[in-house]
Amino acid sequence: MYSKSPVSKIIKLILITAMFLLLIFFSSRGVFSPVRQLFLKIAYPFQKTFYLASEKTNDTLVFLGSIANLKNQNEKLIKENNILSAQLVNLQDQKKENEVFRQQLRLAPRNKYDLEATLVIGQDTHGLGSWIMIDKGDSSGIKTGRPVIASGILVGKIDEVYSNSSKVILLTDSLSSINVTDLATGAKGILVGKYNLGLVMGMVEQTEALNPGDDIITSGLGKTLPEGLLIGKVQQVSNTPDKLFQQAIIIPKVKYSNLKMVFVIK
Amino acid sequence: MRKKILALILIFLIVVIQVSFLANLFPKHIAPNIILVLIVIWSAKEGFKKSWPWAITVGFILDILSLGIVGFNMISFLLISLQTDYFAKKFLVAYKTADFFVIMIFVALGTIVNEFITVSLFQITNFFSMSKTMMSFKMFQTGNFFLQLLYNIIIFIAIYWLVLKFKNVFQRHSKKSVIQ
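Predict the joint structure of the above. Result:
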């Protein structure tokens, strides 16, 4: 019986490995963007339908799980509603106050930007990086690098734009890096993602003050992101191993895994 | 040809379901990998020679639609197909009556290989791209990995007979076409 020599098998293996390495090399340089564009265009209607279906299924499962507690919750909600009605009156006054505070604290006013509302229609399947896919793209005027916010809080940046969809790199992605500042003390640093596990503010000079509980906002340095977008709170402060800088673990103000609707600042 | 186009459309839809439905349905984004399970069943039943083109095709579509680097899933699925074929030749003949359980073990092995390859490639590309933080992402994160393994086995139990039935329907259809 004919059997191939070990040399030919090794050559075949080397060739296949080289082919895949080349594929990965070219892929990371965006060679497959047109193909991806085409595939995403075809998949878009299905993807959106399936994603929304999964949201509805999730909601139904949560509803079914909570059905036993509904009666108690209802009574509780009626009580809460009465309290909230009273609080609403106070909030009208506080709203005016808030506008003044926002100006004083250098926080970006919510009505300052041209926002594009988008639905989240996909997310990282591996859990290795950290990204979401939104249902607006080139046709809606979305551009690469634009900030993405949810409930007024910065969650990421547009990374890739397709005709009807875009990929948003979340702040927790290991390749994400933005200039930030401590709202209370003015300490400046660089916020980086840690593989979907959290956020770390690094490169903070030893002479600057960083305190647990402080709010962290974008500093506007580098001009890639506007100044004053809220990100999260300082949880824990420590020194870098070489003791040259301080670093802090930042807790995001929104849960990235629960994002359903986000806004792109155009 | 018609059969292949139909299979391709079906694969495309399964990948879309994997990427947009299942990934969002399960907590922590750890979802069952239907495609991996299908490749293992297909490779165990049909052999590497028949299944490798499908492993590469489905890997390519998954890489494209999951916005990942093209090649990661292709390599992973190709090796899983090769591995499954190797073990199938050794064990499926000996334990033919228990092929369901043997293939279930292949699914578990495939999940381990998939985790190892995707995480390794991710770390290597990340290291060369910029962040030089190769060691900070841990492979086989205990809880997540076992959850993934469990999901894959459950989905295997759910779809195994369905895939065999579907395969039979396909074969019957193609036999009829030949006779006509």
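The two ends of chain A are 68 Å apart (CA to CA).
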